[in-house]
Design goal:
7% strand, 250 residues, two-stranded antiparallel ribbon, elongated, 52% helix, mainly alpha
């Protein structure tokens, strides 16, 4: 926004304004969803767990030796967080917290907006480097920066080397977010499962209902901001497999 846009579009022009506003929206959602993902508690500590009296439902609960507590189905202990997490998917190394029932929405939007934002930044950055400043960056030293950025910054600590490093990190962010969201997590999301249940359809309620379990009853508005309240249709505790519901209905 401060370096590339002014050189590609005239300041105050239509496309400059459109991209600048879109960039502000993306940066806000990347940052805010990341923080929400880290700050929203999705562990068993946030709930007063009351095992059901029904013996069939109670049989699905299990004892966690580390937490010394009877925990509900789909809750598993995290060795890093040292606590059981409701509908635990995984421990995210980027957010340094567990992804579970109450913060899954923010994790998905963080990856989605990171993917979109890094793609747009990568395209604009590519035009800036390889078109506008083609004469400067089209040289052998650029290859050193691409393949060995630490060496390049040591031998030639310049803004140009830093621009190249930022450009590489942008596409790295795009690659990681795309592979995590589309390749790994989308097959899990659409089945209403979590990483530990990757190939299971025990909790598959259909695509729309599965999305509602993550994004809440106002899921069509949640893309605007993590501050949009959207109540989840489930408490994250009393889970019953789909087959159980069908049997009861029959």
């Amino acid at each position: 926004m401060t370096l590339v846009l002014p050189e590609l579009f005239g300041v105050g022009s239509f496309w400059y304004t459109v991209i600048w506003v879109a960039a502000q929206f993306l940066i806000f959602n990347i940052t805010a969803n990341l923080l929400a993902c880290m700050l929203v508690d999705t562990t068993i500590r946030m709930e007063l767990l009351k095992p059901p009296l029904d013996p069939d439902l109670r049989a699905r609960w299990h004892m966690c030796n580390e937490c010394q507590a009877l925990v509900p189905p789909r809750s598993w202990h995290c060795e890093v967080c040292n606590v059981c997490v409701l509908k635990r998917d995984h421990h995210c190394r980027f957010t340094c917290c567990c992804i579970g029932h109450h913060n899954y929405r923010y994790f998905v939007y963080f990856l989605l907006y990171l993917m979109i934002g890094s793609f747009v930044a990568g395209i604009l950055g590519g035009i800036y480097l390889w078109n506008v400043h083609f004469d400067f960056f089209y040289r052998p030293f650029t290859l050193i920066t691409v393949f060995v950025p630490a060496v390049s910054l040591t031998l030639s600590p310049s803004w140009e080397s830093f621009y190249l490093l930022t450009y590489l990190l942008t596409w790295l962010a795009f690659s990681i977010s795309t592979s995590l969201l589309l390749v790994y997590h989308w097959p899990i999301l659409k089945l209403g499962s979590v990483a530990k249940e990757r190939r299971s359809r025990n909790y598959d309620l259909g695509l729309r209902a599965n999305m509602e379990m993550i994004f809440g009853r106002r899921m069509y508005l949640t893309w605007l901001s993590p501050f949009v309240h959207s109540e989840l249709p489930h408490d994250g505790i009393n889970w019953e497999p789909v087959l159980t519901h069908l049997t009861k209905d029959d």
